[in-house]
């Protein structure tokens, strides 16, 4: 599934409850998938979304979750409660560095591709460096600069004069 980076944000598109290349759950909540299995499917889809994010940026250490959206294929709104996302939110809190909890949204849909019962999307954000965290002290070749300062490149100037 696609992962798109824009500035400090990482958009992790819809992930399904797949394990070993196959859907672990199939059907619609209220018909062939129980409420408990729906919560398990959301948790597994969240794991898959985090794995895609880690594969894209290398580490989850500097990310925080801003938005978690869970889509549930359901025949009825009965049982469609925020409690379905409890395990997914606990996973995000355990895996990502401490920060404000994400905005969580649970949406009922008529159906999802391939008979998936759920789909999860994440918006992650790179945390800013702490104010006291040092900046890079090396030049482009990786050598430590004298005095611990790296010179900024000179600005480019156009030879043409503007009026």
What attributes characterize this protein structure?
163 residues; alpha+beta; 5-stranded mixed β-sheet; two-stranded antiparallel sheet; 7 strands; globular
Structure description:
This protein is α+β, with helices and mostly antiparallel strands and 163 residues long. It has two helices and seven strands, in the order E-E-E-E-H-E-H-E-E. The strands form two sheets. A five-stranded mixed sheet has the order 1-2-7-5-6. It has a two-stranded antiparallel ribbon with strand order 3-4. Helix 1 runs parallel beside helix 2. The longest helix has 23 residues, at 35-57. The radius of gyration is 22 Å and the shape is globular. The model is unreliable at 131-137, 148-152 and 154-158 (pLDDT under 50).
Arithmetic mean of pLDDT: 81
Coarse shape: globular
Number of helices: 2
Distance between the termini: 51 Å
CA radius of gyration is: 22 Å
* Quantity of strands, as a count: 7
**How is the main sheet built?**
5 strands, mixed
Strand content: 25-35%
Order of helices and strands: EEEEHEHEE
């Amino acid at each position: 599934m696609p992962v798109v980076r824009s500035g400090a944000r990482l958009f992790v598109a819809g992930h399904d409850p797949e394990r070993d290349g196959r859907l672990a759950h199939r059907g619609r909540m209220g018909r062939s998938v129980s409420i408990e299995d729906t919560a398990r499917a959301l948790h597994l889809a969240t794991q898959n979304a985090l794995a895609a994010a880690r594969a894209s940026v290398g580490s989850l250490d500097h990310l925080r979750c801003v938005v978690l959206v869970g889509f549930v294929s359901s025949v009825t709104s009965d049982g469609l409660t925020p409690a379905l996302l409890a395990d997914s939110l606990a996973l995000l809190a355990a895996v990502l560095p401490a920060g404000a909890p994400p905005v969580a949204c649970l949406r009922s849909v008529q159906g999802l591709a391939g008979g998936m019962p759920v789909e999860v999307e994440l918006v992650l954000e790179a945390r800013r460096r702490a104010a006291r965290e040092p900046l890079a002290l090396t030049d482009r070749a990786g050598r430590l600069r004298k005095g611990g300062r790296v010179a900024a490149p000179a600005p480019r100037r156009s030879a043409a004069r503007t009026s």
